[in-house]
Each structure stands twice: as structure tokens, then as C-alpha cells.
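Q: How would the C-alpha cells look for this protein?
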Amino acid sequence: MASHKLVIAEKPSVAQTIAKVLGATKKGDGCVTGNGYIVSWCVGHLVGLATPEAYDEKFKTWSFDTLPIMPQSFKFVVKQATKKQFDVLKKLMSDDTVDEIICATDAGREGECIFRYVYNVAKCKKPFKRLWVSSMEEVAIKDGFDNLRNGKDYDNLYEAGLCRAKADWLVGMNASRLFTLRYDTKLTIGRVQTPTLAMLVDRDYKVKNFVKEKYYTVEIGTVDNPYFASSERIDDEIKAGTLLSECDGSPATVKSVKTEKKTANPPKLYDLTTLQREANRYYGYTAQQTLDYVQSLYEAKLCTYPRTDSQYITDDMRDTFISVTGIAKEFTEITSDSVNAEPVINNSKVSDHHALLITAEVGKKDISSLPTGERNVLFLIAARMILASSTPHIYEATSVKLSCADTEFSAKGKVILENGWKQQEQLLKSKIKNENTDDTETQDNEKALPPLSEGDVISPVVPRISEHFTSPPKPYTEDTLLSAMETAGNKDYSEDSDVEKKGLGTPATRAGIIENLIKGEYVERKKKQLIPTDKGINLIKVVPDEVKSPKMTADWESRLQSIEKGKESASAFMGEIGGYVGGLVSAYGSTVENSGFQTRKEAAVLGKCPNCGNEVKKGKFGFYCTGKCGMNLAKVYGKELTEAQLIKLLDGKEISFTRNDKKTTVLPECEPHSYTKDGKEYNSFQWKTKGK
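A: Here is the predicted structure in C-alpha cell form.
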């Protein structure tokens, strides 16, 4: 009997790419076979953590008495929507002809969990190997299969992913029930989501309560070189006027002149977060859109692994990087004299994956055929490779101190010696400037100063008063929020620093966190700004500091990284999470008068059920039909409707939404719907969609 190697990818498209490289071409049921291989796939997460009621029926009812919910052993369940593919994998894993299993899910924490959950629930005991690649190019896949790693080498990675999932479950399930009951309003609490919301609410408060202040400076110069030096801030207009009078026609003496040669190094290569930030700044793309675009590019073999947190490459990639950067120049039409790989090489700063790069496939493909979003993101990655490998920007900075009317004035000037990477950056900006572009970076307005030496006397001085206003803080955009999440709002971090940042979430999860806040109606997008809603503001008002603290959540993420590196035990981390949840329940396990939310003495009537005609109401836990006819009001094929969308449907109006780049139109009508859960078949009704 011929033996086979079973390869399990994360999704069908990746499996097809791998199968082609391996020579497996025969299509089977949920797999592709050939050349001694069976290549199959997951469809994202086929298995997930069970809900509380799976442990005990009593958890179906939300009550303080049943909190905290602390499973001794966590249960996993197969997701009904993709159960068929799970059954395919389970059967293949137990097949006697399969003598080797290869995990080929995405090379990261989530990808590891996707495979391990299936492997464990299928009760597979066969040893497995790990394919670990940073590119879907044929040469990278072949090299990966030539150098398969022992699956046990990634046990710590799995433990970190499992701890994250369990911690999110414990905090989310318990805190959401706890504060929903406490304030008699449906609230969703998340380990990372709520601290992120807290940062948005804090910024919103500062914007709304900002008081603009006027201040003045007196600027001096000469007829030939006007107004090149300035006084310190003066808050009183009369004092500014007095200084103006004293300086007018008086001499100014140069007290000091300091000239330094300075270097501005090129920007680093992209990791996922910096790519998402710049795509938002230049094109207005959300973090999730950018992640979707770059994931598609990765699967099309046009860029390397996207969910990376590194901004460097390793020394053995030098020649490849130089070669591919040449392709980047042709693609972007941004030229530079040479490719300097030294600044982007740092072996110690590359752990699982190197920085985001385009691949050699870009030179072989008609890029104009790509969707606009993918093409723009690919352009940014290519341009960043050129900038990162360009020469430094070198300039001469001069600072001068002058004295006039017994008052100190200062002036700064700059002379560019070598423009370096700034020249390529100017080309980049000229190519992508559009109506969505934020030019939020500080403009460099410093010019060359007139020739001055210590002891020089300038006479007569020509002064003027300049009026200024203090600037309010700006609402977060996805660019600036991602930056704040990366450092948990800690202003002490420098973007140029190579220290390990303790952030909220990971590059792979931050986009989803933002989307969940919007889906939960805690935050709304206003053009590019992210603004907390009244619901979000009120939530942050009532939850305690330990639930909304960015620092504590960032420390947890740092500890998950330590588990991943084998420096901390999973049991110690989970013990602390359990203690934290228990403490929350002890401290806040009672009802209080609701000061932030409108208490519903009686559920609000929203309309009539399209199935049975009874009233539709909104209670503490969502929308429901008072006739209990089985109409699923809240979702359409897994998509959760907002209250505004539901009200439109109840008013007899169509709604539409976009999902997976496809537009779905929902009709104000219902249709029968059958589904299976826990092995049982159920019949219900749901909203009808056009074409269904």
C-alpha cells in the first residue's frame, strides 16, 4: 500500500499553490492528491472555544450567581459552517496510508492554532512536521519542503496562541456578562478592545474640551533678511507690543552660533503595522482593508508574509534584496543611485519573519491587472524598499542666539548637503498624492540663515508681532491609532527606536480589534477619523481602570511573547488571568443605578416581525420577536445587523452591505432556514437576500 504525506494549508487558495509546486494535481473530496502527497486545507478556524452553555445549561441565563465562569478544562467545538471540511481532515489524518503530516498553515501564532485545534479535536496522534516559509513563491516553497522542521519546535508558539485565546475568552465572557448585569445594558468587554476604546475616548475628551489660547512672538530681522529670529512665547499682547517698540531700530548682538552636521537615516522597511499606517495616510485605507490587500498579494506570490513585526532582513538575504529592489525601481519608476542593503540587515531583529518585501514575481506580472487597492499597497511596499536602501539625508543645522532690548531671540537654519533618501520620498509623494492623502508630517520650513558670527551686531533691527494659537489634539485616524496601539499610548517610545514595544494586540490582530469596535457601535468612522459614540463613551465611564488600562493589557501581550519564546510558563500566565477575572467579579458583582446608559424599564418596540406579525423589541440582549416564531432578526448568513439596518428592514426598505468584496442586498421579507448545531437540526426563519 502506497504511503502519503498529508499537507494541511490554512485556506484552499494556498493549498492549490502548494499542490502545484509538489506536483499534486488530482482533485479529490476537499483535497488534491498526487506525487505521494495529499494536500488539504482548513477554511480559517474550523474549530473554536465552546461557549459557556456547553459547560453547563445554567450558563444560558446571565446571572451574577454563575460568575465567574472558569472552566477547569476548556472545550473545543467544530464550527457547523465548515464541519464538512473538518470531517475531511479528520478522515485524512486517520488514514492508514498517511504516514506523515505537514502543517502548512500561515507561519505565525494564529496559523499554528488553526492547525493544532483541528489536530487535537480530531484526536490525531501522528507526529507532524512544520512548513515555515515567508513567501509563496515556488522557490521558497521548495526550499521549505527541503527543510521541514519538527512540529514540536513550535509548541511554545502554540501555547502562546492558546493562552491568548483562553485569556480573551475568560475576560470577554465574564466581564461582558458582569458589566451587562451591573448596568442593565448589553455591553461587550474585550481584553484588548476595551483599552483601545479607552484611548479613543480619552482623545475625544481632550479634543472636545480643548480651549484655544492666543499667544504672540516678536520676530526680528533686517531689510535684506526679514524676520529670521523669534522671541519666546509671550501670552500678553501689551508685553509683546512693548518689546516690539523697544526692538524697533535698536541693534541686536549675536551671542552664539552653533553649526552641526546631521544625518537623517532612511526609514526602515515595512512591518504590517507601518504599512497599514502609511496606507491609511496616503490612500485612506482602513487597517483591515490593507491587511486584506496584502494577504491577497501574498497568496498571489507578489509579496512576502504580511503579518510580520520585523522591519529588517537577515544577512543571507542581501543578494536577493538587492535584486528585488531593482525590480521595485522598475515597477515604481522611482530611481536611486544604488542599493545599500546594510541599514536593513539585522539578524537579531528577525525572529519568525523578515520585513515585508515584494518578490521577483512582480517583474513577471502585469501589475495593471491587479485591483486598485492591491496595486497601491504593492506600490508602497516597493517604494519603501527603495527608500530604506537609499543613502542618508545629510544636512548642516545652524542655531543662533541673539540679544535685542535685553531679550533673547533664537533662529534656526538648515543647509542640505546630500538630499539622499528624501529625494526618493519626494518622488513617492508626487506619484501618490490624492484627495485621501494626509500630509500630517511636520513640514521642514527651515531655510539657510544669513552669514552670522558670534559678536556680530545687526542694526537697525526690523521687528514685527506674530500672532499664534495653540493647536488642539487631533482625533485618531487609523494611522495614529495603530501607532498608539503599538506602544500602548506610551509617549516615551520613539519610532526610530529598536526596543521591543509592549503594545495592544499584535500586527495580526489590530485591524480586527478596530473593526469589532465599529461593528459593536462603540466607534464610528467620520471620513478618516475614528470617533467614539455615546455608547462607547458611556462604557468607558462605567468600567473600572483595571478593565480599560492599556498598560496592563500591553504587559499581558509582552508575557505572551515570553511564553512564545519559552521564557514564561503558560500556567503562570493563565493563573494570573483567572485571579484577575475573579477579582473583577468580587468587586463589581452587583447592580448599581445606571448613570451612563438609558435603563429600559420596558423593551423598545422597533416594528412588526415579517414572519408572524408580532412586535419586534430590543431587550438587554438584542432583538427578538415577541411571538417567539423563530425568526432570526439579528443576522443574515452570519452577518450581524446594526439597529439602524434592522429598523430599515422593519420599515419595508432594502439594505445592503459589502462582505468579502461582494455586495449583498437584503430584502424586507423572510424565508425558511435550516441549520445543524451540536448534531441536531433546527428550523427557523431569516431575512431574504436578493438572488436567494
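The radius of gyration is 30 Å.

Residues 125 and 487 are 41 Å apart (CA to CA).

Upvote if useful.
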